[in-house]
């Protein structure tokens, strides 16, 4: 498993938590930060998966 894949998964989890906390508390800034972090984590995870495929080729 690629390092980017692991980091991306962590960011997705953290972003999801921030997003949920923002929704529950009504804090739009925290919710937006969580959404952005989750998206960045998804992109990093996809990059890691791509690198994994390249390593197997």
From TrEMBL:
One Pfam family in the UniProt entry: CsbD
Designated name of the protein: CsbD family protein
Domain CsbD-like: from-to ranges: 4-53
Stretches the record annotates as Disordered: 1-57
Segments of skewed composition (Basic and acidic residues): 25-41
InterPro entries xref list: CsbD (IPR008462), YjbJ_sf (IPR036629)
Domain of life: Bacteria
Species the sequence originates in: Lichenicoccus roseus
Family as reported in the entry's similarity comment: Belongs to the UPF0337 (CsbD) family.
